[in-house]
Amino acid sequence: MLSARDLRVAFPGRRGAAEARAVDGVDLDLRRGEIVALVGESGCGKSTLARTLLGLVRPTSGTVGFAGKPLEYGGRALKAYRRRAQLVLQDPSGSLNPRHTVYDAVAEGLRIHRYGGDERAAVTGALARAGLRPPERFLLRYPHELSGGQRQRVVIAGALVLEPELLVADEPVASLDASVRGEILALLLRLRAELGLAALVVTHDLGLAWNIADRVAVMYLGRIVETGSVETVLTAPQHPYTRALLSVLPEAPGTPVILSGEAPDPSRVPSGCRFHVRCPVLAEGGAGHRGVAAACRTQDLPVLPATPLAHTACHWVAAGRTGGPG
């Protein structure tokens, strides 16, 4: 349904500084009815990638395809695409106009796309599918009169009202209480089962990915460094970055791996493996033991292919598979 090939997005630097490579070579596929979790720390390029896939950001190079056709960036083409692919934002309080009732918030998309059917029926149907029942109780309420979970359901209803084929959910439960997160995740799974929706879920939480996703793509500094089925990636992680992210989950065995510092500035992407400046395997001598320490520091890794198979962009992992450097 949705594909990216060698996707790159760079933003101009300030005052003559080098450009920031927010997305720096990504291949990604999303099939119909599939949920893919895009996971990584803040600032690794996840949200920029998601917005580029929706046509909200135009790529510097590479292509986005939808339903087998390349995405076109003319106004009419983008409007038609956004009816089929909808964004669900992290903060429902920020994405809902406080002066609009729930009815107006959900009906906004119908009015933009000049819906010709029964508007009230479409709005109440979307609210019911989003779990706000009976929907008539919510039509004249304002956002401040709702709980956080109810506001997020209104946002989801606003996306569903256009009957899209794809949802891109950017940290959909990050601002919600733990007791409500499970309800929203269960809702997304039910929508996939009932409507056949595909979803790209952007998150920093690998635990969320485990509960909702079919596949996981782990992103670091503009590039996907590990991808595969959720069971493969989260039960047998290969990349040192994925291992570190998993190690800090409450249920993870062993000692948490605390990464030093923050991810580098995307305008100063390190040479070689972009993770090598923080990599505990390199720092503790594991890469040297396999004879790839120099490669980690100097040799860039290829963009991972967009296939359902598990892939890892790591010199140390590759050397372990082949018995030596490679």
Automatic annotation (TrEMBL):
Pfam families: ABC_tran, oligo_HPY. InterPro entries: AAA+_ATPase (IPR003593), ABC_transp_ATP-bind (IPR050319), ABC_transporter-like_ATP-bd (IPR003439), ABC_transporter-like_CS (IPR017871), Oligopep_ABC_C (IPR013563), P-loop_NTPase (IPR027417). Keywords: ATP-binding, Nucleotide-binding, Transport. CDD domains: ABC_NikE_OppD_transporters (cd03257). It comes from the Bacteria. Residues 2-246 form the ABC transporter domain. GO terms for biological process: peptide transport; transmembrane transport. The keyword Chloroplast does not apply. GO terms for molecular function: ATP binding; ATP hydrolysis activity. The keyword Transport applies. Belongs to the ABC transporter superfamily. This is Peptide ABC transporter ATPase. It comes from Streptomyces uncialis.
